[in-house]
Amino acid sequence: MAIVLLVLTVVVGCAPYQFGNAALFPPGIQTVHVPVVRDATFRHDLGLRLTEALIREIELRTPYKVTADPFADTTLKCEIIGETKRVLTETDADYPRALDAAIQVRASWSDRAGRLLLNNSVVPTDDLTILFSQDERFVPEAGQSVDMAMQQAIEDLAGRIVSQMEIRW
Predict the structure, then answer these.
(1) What is the secondary structure of the chain as a DSSP string?
(2) Which of 62, 82, 149, 160 could be cross-linked to 104 through a Cys-Cys bond (beta carbons 3.0 to 4.6 Å apart)?
(3) What is the rounded distance in angstroms from the CA atom of residue 53 to the CA atom of residue 156?
(4) Strand 130-138 vs strand 96-111: parallel, antiparallel, or unpaired?
(5) Angstrom distance (rounded) from CA 90 to CA 86
(6) pLDDT tens string for the chain (169 positions)?
(7) 116, 125 Cβ separation under 8 angstroms
(8) pTM of the model as a whole
(9) At 101, phi and psi to the nearest 5?
(10) Residue 101 and residue 97: Cα distance in Å, rounded?
(11) Residues 6+ apart with CB under 8 A from 162
C-alpha cells in the first residue's frame, strides 16, 4: 500500500504540473481567433502579412490552435496604426545610405466574455489595447529593400505580440 501511494505521489505529484510550453500560457484556452489585421496605412499588404506572421507564431510557440471561428475561446485583434521610413545616413551626394523602416500596431487579446488577456504591467492604462512598435534598419547599397525590412519588422513584431500572451510571473 505504501509503495502504491509513493508511486502515485511521484507520478501525479502534489500539484497539477504542465509540461512544455503549455506552462507559459493561460490554462483553459484551446482556440484563438485571429481576424485579418486592419491596416490604417497606405501600404495595402501589411495587414495580411502581419496576420500570417501572427498565425505562424501562435501555432509554433503556443499550445493554442488558431481557428477561423469567431466564437473561439479567445480573439486576438490587431490594427496597424502607422508605418514610417526615415533616412539615418546619407552619402555626400545626398543619397540615402542607411534607413529605418518602422511599423506601429495596436493589439488586444480577449476571451469570449470580453475580459482582456493581454496585460501591460509596465505602463498600466485604461486603454483596452497595447501599443507595439518595431523598426528595422536597411541599406539599399547592400541590396536591401524597404519590403525586406518591413517583413523582418513584421516577423519580429508578431513574436513580441505572441510573447505578451504568456502568463505573468
Answers:
(1) -HHHHHHHHHHH-SS----GGGGGS-TT--EEE-PPPEE-SS-TTHHHHHHHHHHHHHHHHSS-EEES-TTSSEEEEEEEEEEEEEEEEE-TTS-EEEEEEEEEEEEEEEETT--B----SSS--S-SSEEEEEEEEE-GGGT--HHHHHHHHHHHHHHHHHHTTSPP-
(2) 82
(3) 9
(4) antiparallel
(5) 11
(6) 666 555 555 555 444 444 556 677 888 999 999 999 999 998 889 999 999 999 999 999 999 999 999 999 999 999 999 999 999 999 898 889 999 999 999 999 999 988 888 865 555 555 567 899 999 999 998 999 999 999 999 999 999 999 999 886 6
(7) no
(8) 0.81
(9) -110, 130
(10) 13
(11) 54, 57, 58, 61, 62
Residue 67 identity (one-letter amino acid):
T
Instruction: Report residue 150 as a C-alpha cell.
Output: 518591413
